Amino acid sequence: MRKIIVVCNSGLGTSIMIRMNVEALLKEFGLKAWVEHTDVTSMEAHDADLIIGSSYILDSLDSISGIEMIGLEDLIDRQYLKKMLTESTTFQLWVG
């Protein structure tokens, strides 16, 4: 199954909010994926197909080979998140 990891510093507030928006958008697109939220230090322990988090956090990390990362400038706007997802190479493959 497809797996999306949503990361933030603590793995609590921001990542949960983004996770809920990602899950709503997946439903809107009729896609199924496992979505988890975690703190940035634990994200590599998850076997993800796509990683989403604030651009501030993701820009400070080394790329993980073979996994696309979506860095968000706006963490609240669902339409912005939708735009970023639809521009994602990984997400485009899922939509077909």
Automatic annotation (TrEMBL):
The lineage of its organism: Bacteria, Bacillati, Bacillota, Bacilli, Bacillales. The keyword Iron-sulfur does not apply. SUPFAM superfamilies: PTS system IIB component-like. InterPro entries: PTS_EIIB-like_sf (IPR036095), PTS_EIIB_2 (IPR013011), PTS_EIIB_2/3 (IPR003501). Transmembrane segments: none annotated. This is PTS EIIB type-2 domain-containing protein. Residues 2-93 form the PTS EIIB type-2 domain. Keywords: Transferase. Pfam families: PTS_IIB. One of its GO terms (molecular function) is protein-N(PI)-phosphohistidine-sugar phosphotransferase activity. The keyword Transferase applies. GO terms for biological process: phosphoenolpyruvate-dependent sugar phosphotransferase system.
